[in-house]
Amino acid sequence: MILLVFSFRRNSESGVEARQESIWILGFGLVFPAVILGALLAYGLVIGAQLSPQNGANAVKVTAEARRWEWRFTYADAPALETTGTLHIPAGRPVDIAITTADVIHSFWVPRLAGKLDAIPGHINTLRLEADMPGTYKGVSAEFSGAGYEAFTFRVIAHTEAGWTKFLQGQPE
Amino acid sequence: MNALERHRKLTEIWASDKGFKGWFSTVNHNDLGRMFLVTAFFFFIVGGLLAMLIRVQLATPHSAFAGPEIYNQIFTMHGTVMMFLFAIPTFEGLAIYLLPKMLGTRDLAFPRLTAYGFWCYAFGGSMLIVAMLFGIAPDGGWFMYPPLTSAIHSPGINADFWLIGITFVEISAIAAAVEITVSVLKYRAPSMSLAKMPIFAWYALITALMILTGFPPLILGSVLLELERAFGLPFFQVDLGGDSLLWQHLFWLFGHPEVYIIFLPAAGVISTVLPVMCRTTLLGYGWIVSAAVALAFLSFGLWVHHMFTTGIPHMGLAFFSAASTLVAVPTGVQIFAWIGTMWKGRPELHLPMLHILGFFFTFVIGGLTGVMVAVVPFDWQAHDTAFITAHLHYVLFGGFVFPIFAGVYYWLPHFTGRKRFFCLGELAFALVFVGFHVTFLAMHWVGLLGQRRRIPTYAPEDGWTAINLISSVGSFILAIGIAMILVDVVLHIVTAHRGRRNPWNATTLEWAMITPAPAYTFASLPRITWRDPLSAEPDLAVSLARGEGYLGTPRHNWRETLAVDIASGKPEMHVLYPANTRLPILMSAVTGLFFLSLLMKFYWTVPLAMGGVAFLAWKWVWGLGLRQDQAVQSVGHGLSLPNAATVARSPGWWGTAFLLTANATFFGALLFGFAFLWTIAPGWPPPAWFTPSIFELGVGISGAALAPLAIRHATRVNESGGTPFPTVILALCGIVALGFACASLMWRAPTPNEHAYGATMLVLGGYGTFHTAISGLMGGFLTAQIRSGYTSANRRAAFPIVGLWVKYTSATGVIILLAAHLPGLIP
């Protein structure tokens, strides 16, 4: 844009057209973006790979099933337990959330913990997240699902180690 | 004959009927281009009013302005109207109006098709507007994701309006794309080689080819979803072997090229207007053409970046992320070529130039946020928030609306022959520019704070109140600016005084005529050996008006022009255009009846409408028949050319070839869908496979082998003066055999309502049957022509066209039969 402003200055001596072409198009048009974008892409891919679920053996496994308009969560460590609208996780441990839906497409999004991942009928998508601190985090569904969409929210409660054990045993804190 | 007499005589030949009745029968690109543009801007106003309603709703928390049911219709229609009823038709209108003038010819390749496309667009668009007025407009978001839009979750008629109305409108896009492709390739001034074409024609050609390959997946998706909604064929229902992800793939396979289909024509406007505003020539013509071609190819490899959050494996994401960043490179080449052009020249701040600067500023920001969302981890956060809405408005408003306004102000004197009088335009630009940036910068911000797109309201404690209010205020400034532009244009048309020809001192051919453009466009056709013809020959307009070019003498009340060799621009044939007719509007009305019958579920009128279309199409082509052999015609300057009906590769052949390109993309997308469901959808294998039959397979494939051979033989026999009748009948027999095998596949498709496999078999069989019916109809037409003496060794153009259809039908028929029968035959 700075270049744009300068173009209004009358340049006293314009070079040969071929030379201008090579400066503008090869220099600014091809080389400059290629270098910047290449670096950005590599950075993004590395971060993306780190955010994807690895083979973490100590990851807590939960499932999240969406329907219009509530989320149901079940826990691999306590098969009898089901919560609605609130997901309980331990803080400081990676959690793998298997996301799916019983009706239309929804999206699981807890902005402070991870990016969003869609809940698609018949498919199970796994999201890895980890809460560093115990606390309550707000979550929303981020895929338009008809009238009622705006109120489609949930909570994630990250427990301390002791609180998590209690929760799994079915005792309220 | 002096210039004035020539003008009167040619006007008499080319003019449309007097009064408003002329609108219904005109086939002239001058009229139809204007009609397209006016209609498109009508829809722009509609879409803009919807946008205002959205901003009213979001201006304050807990707004009670519209309930969610109405609000969902408003934002769905805003997106739909702007994309399908404003952006694409504006390109079509501009290209239809400008191309013949820039290319130095008198009309587009298929004038009646232009009219048919316009009426399909007008009728289809009206269907959607009527739905909105009755409060039953589509409400599933403009990309209509099933299962939200399937019959279970959206039982009303709303979604059907979208699927059927948009498919109807798409007919006009396909028609215009075929028209533009053939016109750019074949209908140019003598000696205008591809390398001498005005840059806008390159952009129009690339865009048209992209429409031909980009729209069919969407049409297929709409057809499949409508079949699911109306007849319960479960293509997108996961418990019955379908997969809702298939829709997303088909939709974005269209949707991403669509972004470039919208941007490229705007880039064409900039590449045309910018050098004129800077008193210089375009820097790097060849580079710009290559960049546009590269963009077209790359844009088909990007669709998955709209689906980064659907759980696609990270390797796949890496590929599409790389492609998405790569696409910034050819865009960068174009931007820098334009900036280089400005450095090379001396920019003058006329009104079109202001809008171009608006484009630069806005589009570059949109491009940068585009690079941001191409980075996968960032997209996981930003996806489906107001940040994306803001990004896409920067790209579309910056990359399309500003350049179009520049184009409107640039070509306005050409449309009207008048000088701008009021200076509303500059003030309007300032309001639009400021209003736009206030609105959408705020929207980026609120998106990063977590506001999702498409929410009807929000709570005060979300903390978005102030930003949304700022955004809404900005949007009203923007709306006032746009209203002022429209007022300015209307005032210009009705009040300003006459201006001189070529007010910008432009060098392209469209200014080498009196303005407003006469019905016949050029009094005689120029010979073009320069890329900037008017700088080489400043008096070209006068010499053409004096009839010093080709075809300078009006004769026999013919609407005549020349068609040229694609690469070199060497004159190749002499073309006679059809005159004014109501056939196009009638045919699009009957086509509309077909779509309306489907919409209202009056299924008994469907075959009636189909028969009506077939009858009118027959009449349409029959009217072109010639009873006498055509001698070569003198076209001036000592040149004589054969008539288009006496060559092997007539314009009709080229049109058929490009129509079949679009058709083949449709078929390819159907095969992709089949393979996708088979490999990805969870509910497979199906409970029952299709029972193969060696007999049917054998009959079908023999028919598919016989028909093309027979039609080829018939073409040869006809050219050597023999009677082609028996071999055409033989070809028809082959078509019938293939049709039998395809119809049987439809009939025996296993439980199409219970599994997507059977439904796919039904659709594949239906595709084959439909095409054998078309080929049969064409074969029958050819037989009737032969019997009535409309063909001869001289008048031979119909044979290769029928041959193309027959070959296409046979090739796709064989693939369909193999796809259906082979899995069961291989143990």
Structure description:
The complex is a heterodimer of chains A (173) and B (827). By secondary structure, chain A is α+β, with helices and mostly antiparallel strands. Chain A has two domains: 15-51; 60-168, Cupredoxins -  blue copper proteins (Immunoglobulin-like), CATH 2.60.40.420. Chain A is 28% helix and 34% strand. Chain A contains three helices and ten strands, in the order ααββββββββββα. A five-stranded mixed β-sheet of chain A has the order 3-2-1-5-8, with no helix packed on it. In chain A, a hairpin with a 7-residue loop joins strand 6 and strand 7 (117-119). Chain A is elongated. Residues 9-15 of chain A have low confidence and may be disordered. By secondary structure, chain B is mostly helical. Chain B has two domains: 3-495, Cytochrome c oxidase-like, subunit I domain (Cytochrome C Oxidase, Chain A), CATH 1.20.210; 685-825, Four Helix Bundle (Hemerythrin (Met), subunit A) (Up-down Bundle). Chain B is built from 25 helices and four strands. Chain B has helices at 3-14, 21-25, 29-59, 68-103, 111-133, 158-186, 199-231, 244-277, 285-299, 314-326, 328-344, 351-374, 376-382, 386-416, 424-448, 465-495, 533-536, 540-545, 583-600, 605-622, 651-680, 694-719, 725-748, 756-787, 798-825, and strands at residues 559-564, 571-577, 633-636, 639-641. In chain B, the strands form two sheets. Chain B has a two-stranded antiparallel sheet with strand order 1-2. A two-stranded antiparallel ribbon of chain B has the order 3-4. In chain B, helix 23 (725-748) runs parallel beside helix 25. The longest helix of chain B has 36 residues, at 68-103. Chain B starts with a helix and ends with a helix. The mean pLDDT of chain B is 93. At the A-B interface, helix 1 and helix 2 of A face helix 4, helix 10, helix 11, helix 12 and helix 13 of B. Chain A: One of its GO terms (biological process) is ATP synthesis coupled electron transport. Chain A: It catalyses: 4 Fe(II)-[cytochrome c] + O2 + 8 H(+)(in) = 4 Fe(III)-[cytochrome c] + 2 H2O + 4 H(+)(out).
